[in-house]
Amino acid sequence: MIPVFTMLAGSVIAILKTPNGNIRSLILHFAAGVVFSVVAVEILPDVIKEHKPLQVLIGFCLGFILMIGIRRFSESKKTATSGQYNLPIGLLVAIGIDICIDGVLLGIGFAAGNKEGVLLAIALSIELLSLGMATATELRNQNTSKRRTMILVGGLALVFFISAVVGATLLHKTSDSSMEVILSFGLSALLFLVTEELLTEAHEEKETVWHTSVFFGGFLLFLILGMINF
Question: Is pLDDT at 225 greater than 50 in this prediction?
């Protein structure tokens, strides 16, 4: 539920007062550092220890292909008119697919272990905070009402929640080989998320030493948290 609340909070913040590009860039840098840390500290060791290269190859390639497909779809987004509202339907569908994948990845995290799931939930919460801001800002730029914007963002947050529950439920008792494919899929998808989405958007603003420091700070924070047993 935490990522759901942060996404809704992000949309409320954007509706009340749109954050400037510098603040959003800092948030994206921090989110990238956090997700990268979870990948390196928690998920990657679980993938390596099973020593199943074929399953890793299959899962990793599937994750990469799917994320490339999602990006291609989002780049070809078109604005469709619905009554008096101009809704970026393509963008909303692309975000919905991306959020669905994030929810499944959270399910993968909890399937790998409770600590992995908790850390990934926190990491995705930061990502969805930024995504909620960006989505609400885009909808408001299309002259969508505040009420309709909140309903649409709430619907997207619900997609994340459902996919996370379904992912955690279905992946809870899978075989070692299947889990290796799933973890490799999540590894690839999260690496793509960091390098091709979070950091790409973050670098739209002028880079400073503070932006770089926030990225490494996020990585270090979750590296330390990963060493704590809870």
Answer: yes
Q: The tokens 């759901």 sit on which residue?
A: 4
Long-range contacts of the stretch 137-140 (C-beta < 8 A, 24+): 137/14, 137/18, 138/88, 138/91, 139/87, 139/88, 140/14, 140/15, 140/18
Tens digit of each residue's pLDDT (9 = 90 or more) over 29-50: 887 887 788 788 777 887 888 7
Compute how many other C-beta atoms are within 10 angstroms of the C-beta atom of residue 204.
Answer: 11
Asked if 7 and 154 touch (Cβ cutoff 8 Å), the reply is: no
Strand, helix or coil at 127? helix
The tokens of 161 are what?
A: 């929640």
Residue entry with tokens 């649409």: 152
Give the dihedral of Cα atoms 84, 86, 92, 94; nearest 10 deg. 140
Q: Rounded CA gap, 93 and 165, in Å?
A: 20
Can you tell me the distance from the alpha carbon of 2 to that of 21, in angstroms, rounded to the nearest whole number?
24
Residues with Cβ < 8 Å from 216, sequence gap 6 or more?
Answer: 33
